[in-house]
């Protein structure tokens, strides 16, 4: 326009070309503080000649009727606007400390009112890019008592594209962690409050650029994007002051207030209640849908309890911070809270309902029949309930939302409903249960129900939420589900059914070795470098068992008999009693039989010394004494470290055959299996068959000094001894 051309021309004579708003604001701001615009002009070296073009008239504040509003050019300081006003022929009669932005400037009545365009001014070419409009994301008030919030995690990074309705961060309030959604499309230009940092409600936490090309410009001006707007926390007290005072009940209950879903929201409209009065609710469960000045959003409960009274009904509006419902901790407190709710809403108590109320019920009864022909997305009053993404897609496709059938909660229209309607496909309807007793929260198609903490953990672990089976209410993915997927937490065991056996409590976690267990472990590791071989043989046990039954009453055990038999066999083949040492064979004259014994917390090998020289009665008494000491932990080192050959017997546990590990410093160890009965041919038997008992023994030897033939001959001699009771009784 003509006035804009004149302003641009005059302004260009005082400022260096394209130096931008920052330079102009700074210099003119200095001039404003001194109440002398001339200092600004002189700062640019333009001289007194140009200064004569500017005239200030007086310093008194004008009367209110002379106030004129100047709008536009939101990033230009008041001093810059004042200079432009004077250059365009206006005159200034007001104070110098007027507020920038949409502020009232005192202008004489004959001064023209004007607005600077946002994209045409030469000042828009500055480094702060006046034409790059920054969309502020402020710390939301997630509850009426919330004063500040902490950013748990950002679900988007700087430079990422975001869409309206998409979760961009997780905020921890004074009650719970919640996702915060974007209300407009754009690109996340700058994060001002990082993860783990806190900010008061209403403070700017991030900036969104409308276009990708504006990211750098918006980010560069991020430091100036704080404050200025009225915060929800400021609006909440006003709503509380307007509410009539009433004596609160003396029992425990909680109040649901109208949340501030955006920094500019002053009031909200309850689109629908997902719970009815009297229904039980859980913390984190969606209970209502609220329409703000930007989008429709689900509102979750912060505490467990019962929905006692609904103060703001469906279709009604309420100021931010005003009570909309009451939650009772106990079901028996519901009637008292309903009476208290009547004092908050100004309506009569439920017990004192107006007589005309029953008469009004008849028209309402016919309402559902008439509404049946309308699409499910159309609510009372002709309003269409749809998600922000659905509205955006409908606008792009030129589709009338009132003709779309919604399949979301309460008939809400989702993005998939719009796509189906545009393609002519019928909406896919899930098989609904017959006459549900109460509303059920069902996520929209394509939306993964997950708690804010679960989303943050999944992002950190780089896990796709769609691959996790949620165990929370309504199949919601919880933090425990993510921890179980990463292995940080073990799945919880299902409780036993009523009347079933209680689960056995098993040990879990790391337990350090005892001194004995460490010694056993070290000894086993030392054998790993020893080359070994194994040889097994079956021995008939009928004669041996008969001998045992005869000496058992005298206190002789199987272990004592086995030690005597092995010692006698070693006398014939002393190589079995040797050990490898420094490139040679170390023979040992004493035959000391070590018997492996399992005790509480470890393994020990009490030794029957000189077993080949002592009779079975003496060996039986000695063995009984050694076992007692082993269980009491009073064995002397000589009684468990002097063995030259070891026997390990697991036959009493029903083990048929096993291999034993060769102890360090010995040449052999014999593994004893259990006795089993077999049917074998016998020519002298009546039917040519007889039943015999056999035992399998396995010898493990150090192959450096003991060879396979030595082991085989030793087992043959052992079999001869054990089948000859008279030899054992010597």
Summarize the structure.
This protein has 730 residues and is α+β, with helices and mostly antiparallel strands.
Largest sheet: 6 strands, mixed
Low confidence ranges: 1-130, 223-245, 347-374
Trace the largest sheet across and list its strands.
19-28-27-26-22-25
- Note the quaternary state here: single chain
Gross morphology: elongated
How much helix is in the residues? 25-40%
The Rg value, from CA coordinates, equals: 46 Å
Return the structural class: alpha+beta
Q: Give the number of DSSP strands.
A: 28
Q: How widely separated are the two ends?
A: 132 Å
Number of helices: 20
Strand content: 15-25%
Mean pLDDT: 74
How does this model look, in words?
The structure is a single chain. The chain is α+β, with helices and mostly antiparallel strands and 730 residues long. 28% of the residues lie in helices and 20% in strands. The chain contains 20 helices and 28 strands. The strands form 8 sheets. The protein has a 6-stranded mixed sheet. Strand 14 and strand 15 (296-300) form a beta hairpin. The longest helix has 17 residues, at 616-632. The model is unreliable at 1-130, 223-245 and 347-374 (pLDDT under 50).
Task: List the keywords.
730 residues; alpha+beta; six-stranded mixed sheet; four-stranded antiparallel sheet; 28% helix; disordered N terminus
Secondary structure blueprint with pairings:
Layout: H1 2-14, H2 20-33, H3 38-43, H4 47-51, E1 67-69, H5 78-87, E2 104-106, E3 134-138, E4 148-154, E5 161-162, E6 167-172, E7 177-181, E8 186-191, E9 198-200, E10 204-209, H6 215-220, H7 232-242, E11 253-257, E12 267-273, E13 280-281, E14 286-291, E15 296-300, E16 305-310, E17 317-319, E18 323-328, H8 334-345, H9 357-371, H10 388-397, H11 415-423, H12 452-461, H13 479-486, H14 515-526, E19 532-540, H15 542-551, H16 558-572, E20 579-581, E21 584-586, E22 593-595, E23 597-599, E24 602-604, E25 607-608, H17 616-632, H18 637-641, E26 645-649, E27 668-681, E28 689-702, H19 708-722, H20 725-728
Parallel strand pairs: 22-26, 26-27
Antiparallel strand pairs: 1-2, 3-10, 4-6, 4-9, 5-8, 6-7, 8-10, 11-18, 12-14, 12-17, 13-16, 14-15, 16-18, 19-28, 20-21, 22-25, 23-24, 27-28
């Amino acid at each position: 326009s003509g006035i804009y051309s004149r302003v641009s021309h005059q302004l260009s004579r005082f400022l260096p070309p394209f130096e931008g708003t920052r330079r102009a604001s700074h210099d003119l701001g200095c001039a404003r503080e001194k109440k002398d615009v001339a200092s600004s002009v002189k700062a640019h070296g333009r001289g007194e000649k140009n200064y004569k073009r500017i005239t200030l008239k007086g310093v008194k504040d004008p009367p209110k009727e002379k106030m004129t509003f100047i709008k536009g050019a939101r990033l230009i300081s008041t001093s810059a606007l004042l200079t432009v006003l004077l250059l365009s022929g206006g005159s200034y009669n007001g104070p110098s400390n007027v507020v920038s932005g949409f502020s009232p400037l005192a202008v004489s009545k004959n001064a023209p009112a004007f607005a600077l365009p946002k994209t045409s001014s030469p000042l828009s070419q500055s480094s702060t890019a006046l034409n790059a409009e920054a969309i502020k994301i402020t710390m939301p008030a997630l509850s009426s008592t919330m004063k500040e919030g902490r950013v748990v995690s950002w679900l988007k990074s700087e430079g990422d594209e975001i869409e309206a309705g998409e979760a961009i961060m997780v905020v921890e309030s004074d009650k719970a962690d919640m996702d915060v959604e974007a209300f407009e499309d754009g690109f996340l230009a700058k994060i001002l409050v990082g993860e783990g940092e806190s900010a008061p409600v209403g403070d700017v936490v991030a900036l969104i650029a409308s276009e990708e090309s504006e990211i750098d410009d918006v980010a560069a001006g991020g430091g100036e994007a704080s404050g200025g707007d009225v915060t929800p926390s400021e609006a909440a007290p006003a709503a509380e002051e307007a509410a009539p005072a009433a004596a609160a009940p003396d029992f425990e209950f909680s109040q649901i207030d109208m949340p501030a879903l955006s920094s500019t929201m002053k009031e909200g409209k309850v689109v629908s209640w997902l719970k009815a009065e009297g229904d039980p609710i859980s913390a984190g469960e969606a209970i209502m849908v609220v329409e703000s000045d930007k989008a429709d959003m689900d509102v979750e409960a912060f505490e467990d309890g019962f929905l006692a009274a609904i103060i703001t009904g469906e279709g009604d509006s309420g100021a931010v911070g005003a009570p909309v419902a009451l939650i009772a901790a106990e079901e028996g407190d519901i009637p008292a809270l309903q009476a208290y709710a009547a004092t908050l809403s100004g309506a009569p108590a439920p017990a004192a309902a107006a007589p005309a109320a029953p008469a009004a019920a008849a028209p309402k009864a016919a309402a559902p029949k008439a509404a049946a022909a309308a699409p499910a997305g159309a609510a009372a009053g002709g309003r269409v309930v749809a998600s922000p993404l659905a509205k955006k897609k409908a606008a792009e496709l030129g589709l009338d939302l009132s003709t779309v059938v919604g399949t979301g909660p309460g008939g809400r229209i989702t993005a998939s409903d719009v796509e189906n309607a545009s393609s002519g496909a019928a909406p896919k309807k899930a098989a609904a249960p017959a006459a549900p007793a109460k509303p059920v929260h069902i996520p929209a198609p394509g939306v993964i129900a997950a708690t804010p903490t679960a989303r943050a953990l999944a992002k950190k672990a780089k896990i796709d939420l769609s691959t996790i089976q949620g165990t929370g209410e309504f199949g919601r993915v919880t933090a425990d589900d993510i921890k179980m997927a990463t292995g940080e937490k073990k799945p919880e065991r299902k409780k036993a059914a009523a009347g079933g056996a209680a689960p056995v409590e098993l040990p879990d976690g790391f337990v350090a070795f005892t001194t004995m267990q460490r010694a056993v472990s070290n000894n086993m590791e030392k054998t790993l470098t020893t080359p070994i071989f194994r040889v097994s043989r079956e021995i008939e046990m009928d004669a041996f068992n008969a001998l045992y039954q005869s000496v058992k009453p005298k206190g002789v055990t199987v272990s004592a008999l086995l030690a005597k038999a092995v010692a006698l066999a070693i006398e014939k083949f002393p190589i079995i009693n040797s050990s490898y040492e420094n490139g040679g064979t170390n023979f040992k004259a004493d035959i000391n039989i070590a018997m492996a014994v399992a005790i509480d917390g470890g393994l020990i090998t009490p030794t029957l010394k000189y077993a080949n020289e002592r009779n079975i009665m003496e060996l039986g008494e000695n063995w009984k004494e050694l076992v007692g000491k082993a269980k009491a932990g009073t064995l002397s080192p000589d009684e468990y470290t002097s063995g030259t050959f070891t026997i390990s017997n697991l036959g009493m546990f029903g083990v048929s055959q096993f291999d034993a590990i060769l102890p360090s410093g010995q040449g052999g160890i014999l593994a004893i299996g259990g006795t089993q009965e077999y049917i074998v041919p016998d020519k002298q038997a009546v039917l040519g068959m007889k039943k015999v008992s056999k035992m399998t023994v396995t010898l493990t030897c150090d192959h450096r000094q003991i060879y396979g033939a030595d082991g085989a001959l030793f087992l043959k001699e052992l079999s001869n001894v054990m089948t000859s009771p008279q030899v054992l009784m010597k």
